[in-house]
């Protein structure tokens, strides 16, 4: 059985999409980011908890503050990307559950009254949303450069608070010259899938 999604869209979102390491100077607009969010917000999360929070770093001052917390190899591309997004998990997401899960508002207290349960759920579900975000960036015709090479405690202190855990930093824009590393191998279907 073939996929329903058009092959051109399959290429845009997956087969031809790459992690960009250089970008051209063309800005990423607020309208583009809004369109990305308005698409990816529909990706599923458990209890519709939607714990992803996004900090957009646009200003030169913000960029300077961020770059100092990035791993050495990630600094140049973060300094020059048109837009950088810090993706974080909101560990107090449960406060929104009565509105996000109106048919089961008691889920807030029944499942998420304890901080460790919230942190575990927020980390998993915000990571799902981060993956949706990357696909959304690609759907907008842009390249994403997701990175986890940074000082998490430094980014949390500089840009977030104790209720938000950084998950990744994503450079966003149109790819520049020599943007791609060679594509790394992938595991085959038989190496990944087991039928019982």
Automatic annotation (TrEMBL):
The entry's keywords: Flavoprotein, FMN, NADP, Oxidoreductase
InterPro entries associated with the record: Nitroreductase, Nitroreductase-like, Nitroreductase_HadB/RutE, RutE-like
EC number(s) reported in the record: 1.1.1.298
Any one Pfam family match given in the protein's UniProt record, by short name: Nitroreductase
Domain Nitroreductase stretches: 18-174
GO molecular function (one): 3-hydroxypropionate dehydrogenase (NADP+) activity
UniProt protein name: Malonic semialdehyde reductase
The organism of origin for this protein: Streptomyces sp. JL1001
Lineage: Bacteria, Bacillati, Actinomycetota, Actinomycetes, Kitasatosporales
């Amino acid at each position: 059985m073939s996929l329903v999604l058009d092959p051109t869209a399959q290429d845009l979102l997956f087969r031809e999409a790459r992690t960009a390491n250089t970008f051209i100077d063309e800005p990423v607009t607020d309208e583009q980011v809004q369109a990305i969010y308005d698409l990816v917000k529909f990706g599923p999360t458990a209890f519709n908890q939607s714990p992803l929070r996004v900090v957009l770093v646009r200003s030169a001052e913000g960029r300077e503050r961020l770059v100092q917390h990035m791993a050495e190899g990630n600094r140049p591309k973060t300094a020059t990307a048109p837009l950088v997004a810090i993706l974080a998990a909101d560990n107090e997401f449960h406060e929104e559950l009565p509105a996000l899960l109106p048919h089961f508002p008691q889920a807030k207290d029944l499942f998420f009254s304890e901080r460790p349960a919230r942190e575990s759920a927020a980390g998993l579900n915000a990571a799902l949303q981060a993956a949706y975000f990357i696909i959304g960036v690609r759907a907008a015709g842009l390249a994403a450069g997701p990175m986890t090479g940074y000082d998490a405690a430094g980014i949390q202190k500089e840009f977030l608070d104790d209720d938000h855990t950084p998950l990744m930093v994503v450079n966003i824009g149109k790819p520049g010259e020599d943007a791609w590393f060679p594509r790394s191998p992938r595991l085959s279907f038989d190496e990944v899938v087991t039928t019982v």
